[in-house]
Write a structure and sequence with these properties.
The complex is a heterodimer of chains A (463) and B (447). Chain A has 463 residues and is of the alpha+beta class. Chain A is 21% helix and 41% strand. Chain A is built from ten helices and 23 strands. In chain A, the strands form four sheets. In chain A, strands 1, 2, 3, 4, 5, 6 and 7 form a seven-stranded mixed sheet that branches. In chain A, strands 9, 10, 11, 14, 20, 21 and 22 form a seven-stranded mixed sheet that branches. In chain A, a hairpin with a 2-residue loop joins strand 1 (21-37) and strand 2 (40-58). The model of chain A has no long low-confidence stretch (mean pLDDT 94). The relative contact order of chain B is 0.14. In chain B, the strands form four sheets. Chain B has a six-stranded antiparallel sheet with strand order 3-2-1-4-5-6. Chain B has a five-stranded mixed β-barrel with strand order 7-14-15-16-18. By secondary structure, chain B is of the alpha+beta class. In chain B, 23% of the residues lie in helices and 37% in strands. In chain B, helix 4 (120-136) runs parallel beside helix 5 (204-216). Chain B has helices spanning 2-13, 72-86, 113-117, 120-136, 204-216, 235-248, 251-255, 316-322, 354-359, 373-376, 411-416, and strands spanning 20-37, 40-58, 61-67, 141-160, 165-183, 186-196, 227-233, 276-278, 301-305, 308-309, 330-331, 339-340, 345-347, 363-371, 383-394, 397-410, 418-421, 437-445. The chains are: A alpha+beta (463), B alpha+beta (447). At the A-B interface, strand 1, strand 2, strand 3, helix 2 and helix 3 of A face strand 2, strand 3, helix 2, strand 4 and strand 5 of B.
């Protein structure tokens, strides 16, 4: 994307005012999407974003500038702006010699979506629409979306690091509305992987569409969710967002350093029930949160955050790790070249236990079974978090009975982790997610086995 | 400067082939974001960005492409992509661009030269002052999660072969902070902000004191018991709720069978105290604009009047399909085709101060923060359940802080259960304006 000699020159300029660290992050991203709604393919969209972000660190201050102009002159102008923003003293001279490394993700993309005829992508939309509507007359509306993107990044910094990576992601989602006597309900199914068009060899789009339609239909007969505390069983693959919110964000080193995490100072302590092991793993092949290198050029890692209930480590980006004199954990990510990187999750999951999932439900006299969670949100300073249930049922006398309408559950991270009292042997990854932090969205994955929390507050309306 | 953007848009439109309708949106912006921590700059980002979005309609089929660049080669590639995408869309007799509708674009005071000339050092000083006042506000303030200053200077031009030629330029800035208060092992947080069109509009001390007060008053919070209570939503919370309500009144959702108000025009849908307007021409609003995303004049629309549903909002496409005219509610960036949405939604305020609203409640909760709106509110079904924190109301006075509970109802029922609208309009860094709102009979789920 940019010549090595130009990068070395630009980094030299960035360091000229006394910078301690400088970095060029360049990105060339192509997006393609297609949407079918209300029976019509509304449009195909193609887009391209290309540019570079340059940061310069002086003491505790980071200066940052970005540009869509990747010529040497454009990059030098951005480097000067970033250096000025970092407010360095000046007078330094710095020769940067880059050492080119290769990024590897351990598998190959089979079919680049950019090489697939648009007509084939559009055909998938039509098939899903037909399949969802065929489920029943109560399905009153269907929206289907397809998306792919190819993101080529380059990172070069004043420590000599120079790495490029090329990432391909493919996404497909079906959303249905069902209309009944009691109004409308919605159902959704989505899949996304860090692979190419071969994703459609893994999934039958007709089946995905039927799943979405079934979810909407099921909820037509749903009753209001209960209000108050009771045991909650979360289904395999349906609820990794619980850990993303309950502890994931609180284990991000930037929040910890500011004292904005309830997990501050708790490394080595028992923070969760015995048997609970939580991992953040950017190397998980083909998963939505997979990365070969993070957006600071560090290789993705498998990081164990909580092992058998004991907090083992936080997640780190370059800046926080540098301050602590340790290595980044490969968690420095950013939405685009227009943003500064910060500590972010990749694929966050809870390892399986040994129990039979059926017996976990059978041993719950009264509670809620959440098959699919929606999004969530956490206040890392207090630990209070919420997450939505998009498909849930009552458990009565150890059996799954009536479907429930949507609602949020609320809990406190450190308390909920200690209340996990059953772990199934049926681990699965969940649907693709977008994690938002400080206005930046990045793709993340999550996964859980069937598990039970002995008590959570369910935010429904039924007594 | 916008003339330069309009010239680019004109050039794109001039490339239309026979039978093609073309629309070009060209934008350019300069943004600065300064975060401070510990009395020093933590990060300072400043950058210019630009982009072009090209929409082409041929014989009832639409294609679109965009690029984050205004280079001639990028524009040519984008135009070719948009053209290629046309052939894959389904024929739609209503597809097409916005036509000039004769509504004069209002002259609004949205651009301030003082914003453009304001020095970076002075921006830094505002952010440092914000943090300093937060830290000094109360001995229990233990730190800040964030303290930032941000501004944006943006210009846009839209031109189309249907005869649209519109330019606009806007400036805005804000200060925002999350304060942390700590007592023993317990930490609570509070948010404060100040918004304006130029830095002299900003009041760092008011934002800082609000954040500190919201954080400290939550110390000692307990989980409340479950029950049905009257709830006072503070302006910040009401605004978020109005943003969701706006979705249900968007003409495209109505046409596509996703609005729970689809068949209700002219009917009572809520308390007679409720008058909901969408008014992007109110320059006090952070998202005020003189033109919508298709270059039509922005205008004041009354959506609900005294509880009666009056109007859905439309862009050119949804209006054509619904057999009506655009209400000037096309919403878009350069990376997408126009959707439909409210631009700046607000309730007409009532006459009571918040203290008077609280004085009338024997047993209730003042909600100062909600969480999980995206996961707990379904605007299609109307099911509504969010995490909440705030203060208990007992015998007409604010009492102990409460947290880790949810409030739940349905959007339909909440509108009917509104008991009072406050007089305290608050302009926020979002597309909805806040005001205190009293809603009866919400389900509180706690211990």
């Amino acid at each position: 994307m940019i010549e090595q000699s130009v990068l070395e020159e630009v980094l030299g300029v960035a360091m000229r005012t006394g910078g301690e660290f400088a970095e060029v992050f360049a990105e060339d991203r192509r997006n393609a999407s297609a949407v079918l709604d209300d029976g019509r393919v509304e449009e195909l969209t193609s887009g391209r974003d290309r540019g570079a972000g340059i940061r310069v660190v002086v003491g505790d201050t980071t200066g940052f500038a970005h540009t869509a102009d990747l010529t040497e002159a454009g990059l030098i102008a951005a480097a000067e702006a970033a250096a000025a923003a970092a407010r360095g003293g000046g007078g330094g001279t710095n020769v940067v010699a880059l050492d080119r490394r290769s990024a590897s993700r351990g598998y190959d993309i089979e079919t680049y979506p950019g090489n697939v005829p648009k007509a084939r992508k559009v055909e998938l939309l039509g098939r899903a629409n037909d399949a969802a509507r065929a489920v029943g007359g109560a399905i009153s509306q269907v929206s289907v979306s397809y998306g792919d993107n190819r993101r080529h990044i380059l990172v070069a910094n004043s420590d000599g690091l120079f790495v490029e990576d090329d990432t391909v992601r493919t996404f497909f989602a079906v959303s249905c509305v069902a209309t009944g006597d009691a109004g409308m309900q919605t159902g959704r199914e989505s899949v996304g992987h860090t692979i190419g068009f071969e994703m459609f060899d893994m999934y039958d789009v007709d089946q995905l569409a039927r799943n979405a339609a079934d979810r909407a239909l099921t909820k037509l007969a749903a009753r209001p969710a209960p209000s108050g505390q009771m045991p909650v069983v979360i289904g395999s693959g349906g609820g990794g967002v619980l850990f993303h919110e309950a502890c994931g964000h609180g284990l991000e080193a930037d929040l910890v350093a500011k004292g904005a995490s309830v997990f501050r100072g708790r490394v080595g302590q028992q923070v969760a029930s015995k048997g609970v092991t939580v991992v953040d793993d950017g190397t998980m092949e083909r998963e939505w949160g997979n990365i070969a290198v993070d957006d600071e050029g560090n290789p993705a890692q498998r990081n164990v955050l909580i092992e058998d209930g004991v907090l083992t480590d936080y997640m780190w980006d370059h800046l926080r790790a540098r301050k602590e004199g340790r290595r980044s954990s490969g968690n420095g990510r950013r939405q685009s070249y227009q943003n500064l990187p910060m500590v972010r999750m990749t694929n966050t999951y809870l390892l399986a236990g040994e129990e039979d999932p059926e017996s976990i439900i059978a041993s719950t006299p009264k509670g809620v079974y959440v098959k699919h969670l929606g999004g969530g949100q956490v206040n890392t300073a207090t630990g209070d978090f919420v997450f939505g249930m998009t498909e849930a049922y009552l458990i009565e006398d150890g059996k799954i009975t009536e479907p429930l309408r949507e609602g949020n559950l609320i809990g406190n991270g450190p308390e909920v982790l200690q209340r996990i009292d059953a772990l199934g042997n049926d681990f699965a990854m969940g649907p693709p997610g977008t994690c938002g932090k400080d206005g930046q969205g990045v793709p993340v994955g999550d996964g859980v086995p069937t598990l039970r929390v002995s008590s959570l507050t369910i935010g429904g309306t039924a007594a | 400067m916008s003339d330069e953007l309009l010239a680019i848009a004109d050039r794109v439109v001039a490339m239309a082939k026979p039978g093609e309708q073309i629309e070009a949106v060209v934008v350019r912006g300069t943004e600065t974001e300064i975060r401070v921590f510990g009395g020093d700059v933590e990060s300072l980002s400043s950058a210019q960005s630009q982009g072009v979005g090209i929409r082409i309609v041929v014989d009832g089929r639409q294609g679109f492409a965009y690029a984050g660049s205004l280079d001639e080669s990028a524009i040519a590639e984008t135009l070719a992509d948009a053209r290629d995408n046309v052939s894959f869309a389904t024929f739609d007799e209503f597809a097409g661009l916005a036509e000039p509708d004769g509504v004069v674009i209002p002259v609004l005071d949205l651009h301030r030269d003082a914003m453009v000339s304001f020095a970076t050092d002075d921006k830094i000083a505002l952010a440092i002052e914000l943090e300093r006042v937060v830290m000094a506000a109360d001995p229990r303030i233990s730190g800040i999660e964030s303290a930032e200053y941000a501004d944006s200077i943006s210009e846009a031009a839209i031109a189309s072969s249907a005869g649209i030629r519109t330019t606009g330029s806007e400036t805005s800035c804000f200060l925002a902070t999350y304060a942390m208060a700590t007592e023993g092992d317990e930490t609570q947080t509070g948010f404060g902000f100040s918004v304006g069109r130029e830095p002299s509009d900003l009041t760092p001390s008011a934002a800082a004191i609000e954040a500190a007060e919201r954080a400290t008053r939550m110390l000692g919070a307990v989980q409340p018991p479950s029950g049905r209570l009257t709830v006072v939503l503070d302006p910040w919370v009401t605004a978020q709720f109005l943003g969701i309500l706006g979705y249900t009144l968007d003409g495209e959702s109505v046409l596509k069978g996703r609005s729970l108000f689809a068949e209700r025009l002219g009917e009572s849908v809520g308390s007679s105290l409720l008058t909901l307007i969408d008014d992007p021409t109110d320059v006090r609003s952070f998202t005020a604009t003189d033109a919508d995303g298709e270059g039509l004049a922005a205008r004041r629309n009354v959506l609900i009047e005294n509880g009666v549903l009056q109007k859905f909002v439309h862009n050119a496409y949804s209006a054509r399909r619904a057999g009506t005219v655009s209400t000037g509610n096309a919403v878009r960036g350069f990376k997408s085709t126009p959707s439909v949405g409210c631009l700046s939604v607000s309730l007409v305020p009532g006459i009571s101060e918040p203290a008077a609203l609280i004085a009338g409640i024997d047993d209730g909760v003042l909600v100062q923060e909600v969480s999980g709106l995206h996961s707990g509110v379904n605007p299609v079904s109307g099911d509504f359940s969010t995490g909440a924190e705030g203060l208990r109301i007992r015998n007409g006075e604010l009492a102990e802080p409460v947290r880790e509970f949810t409030i739940a109802s349905t959007l339909q029922k909440m509108l009917r259960d509104v008991q009072a609208v406050g007089s305290d309009l608050q302009f926020l860094p979002m597309n909805a304006t806040g005001v205190s709102l009293v809603v009866a009979d919400l389900t509180v789920s706690g211990s």
